[in-house]
Specification:
Elements (H helix, E strand, L loop, with lengths): L2 E4 L3 H13 L14 E6 L2 E7 L9 E5 L2 E8 L17 E9 L9 E5 L2 E7 L23 E5 L6 E5 L1
InterPro entries: A-crystallin/Hsp20_dom, HSP20-like_chaperone, Small_HSP
Family: Belongs to the small heat shock protein (HSP20) family.
Organism: Geodermatophilus maliterrae
Length: 164
């Protein structure tokens, strides 16, 4: 397994939305409920895409501790003078997502980029964990027949040692 996803704020943000509705504050800016993500392996890389529309790239923080990748970001509420909000449904605030990565990933070579509201994290599979082909070689000839070649006579099924 390459990763385990954990969103510590998913249940909490749902509770806050319910409290806003009970308090009679419909239409208030709601907290972010999570960071939608796609993750897959392609070749010798593990790739994850996080949807972060409207997030300032300077607010994105990535950290790795052991096998846990933590992605944090913040989407600020626009500060508009003399604005009277009619509807505020877009989520704002700070949020975090953690992924527990498999030990087969080389987190020292993690790369991240942010383009068009999508954070892409690419982590190579560690060299020692990559699939590789093992060459099977013929074992050395036993020392008792060293200098001899084993020949097989076709059709008879017999083998004999021949001095060379």
């Amino acid at each position: 397994m390459m990763l385990t996803a954990y969103d510590p704020f998913a249940a909490t943000s749902a509770a806050f939305r319910a409290l806003d509705q009970l308090a009679g504050r419909p239409g208030t800016a709601r907290a972010l409920s999570g960071m939608p993500m796609d993750a897959y392996r392609v070749g010798d890389k593990f790739v994850a895409h996080f949807d972060l529309p409207g997030v300032d790239p300077g607010s994105i923080d990535l950290s790795v501790e052991g096998t846990t990748l933590t992605v944090s970001a913040e989407r600020s509420v626009p500060q508009l003078e003399n604005a009277e909000w009619a509807v505020a449904e877009r989520p704002y605030g700070a949020y975090t997502r953690q992924l527990v990565l498999g030990r087969s990933l080389d987190t020292d070579r993690l790369e991240a980029s942010y383009h068009d509201g999508v954070l892409t994290v690419s982590i190579p599979v560690a060299e020692k964990a990559r699939a590789r082909k093992i060459t099977v070689t013929r074992a050395d000839v036993p020392s008792a027949v060293e200098g001899r070649t084993i020949e097989h006579e076709s059709g008879s099924g017999e083998q004999r040692a021949v001095e060379k």
